[in-house]
Structures are given as C-alpha cells and as structure tokens.
Write a structure and sequence with these properties.
Protein name: RNase H type-1 domain-containing protein
Pfam families: RVT_3
Largest sheet: 2 strands, antiparallel
Helix content: 40-55%
Order of helices and strands: EEHHH
GO molecular function, one term: RNA-DNA hybrid ribonuclease activity
Length: 84
C-alpha cells in the first residue's frame, strides 16, 4: 500500500506477507485493514482507501453484518474508521 497526501507525493509505503490467505478477495480485505492501521499509526486525520474489489468497498461502507468469511475483518475496518 502507498500513502499519499493531497499533493500526491508518496509519504509512506508498506507491504505485508500473510501465509494463510485463501483468496485474492480475502487479501484485498486484509490490505484495507492494514491501510486503516497504517493511517492510525501515522496520525492521519482522513484516509481514502482505494481497491480493486467493489464488493469489499461496499461491505466496508455498509453497516449490515453478514456471515461471509471476511465479516470479522470488515468489522475491524469499520471500528478503525472512528479514528479518522
């Protein structure tokens, strides 16, 4: 992931290796979670996360819960939103 401020200059980047990721879909959710954690650790007041999966983006923006494999991670992302 890459952190850019409004001037588009790259301020930070991070990559994380997970050994038990079952699909690209799950990897995308973990990337979103890591993005929120990085924003919190950098003390950023506002974060815009962009991704390839419209489903992941919609689930992060929604308040409804479901029984999907990624729901626990989505809940972590939602709880991190309160930090921004």
């Amino acid at each position: 992931m890459v952190v850019r401020y409004q001037d588009s200059v790259i301020r930070a980047s991070k990559s994380t290796l997970h050994s038990n990721i079952s699909s690209l879909f799950v990897a995308e959710v973990y990337a979103c979670l890591e993005a929120t954690k990085l924003g919190i650790s950098m003390g950023i007041e506002s974060v815009t996360i962009m991704g390839d999966s419209k489903t992941v983006i919609n689930k992060c923006q929604s308040t409804t819960k479901d029984k999907s494999v990624i729901e626990t991670i989505i809940q972590d992302i939602r709880s991190n939103r309160s930090c921004f």
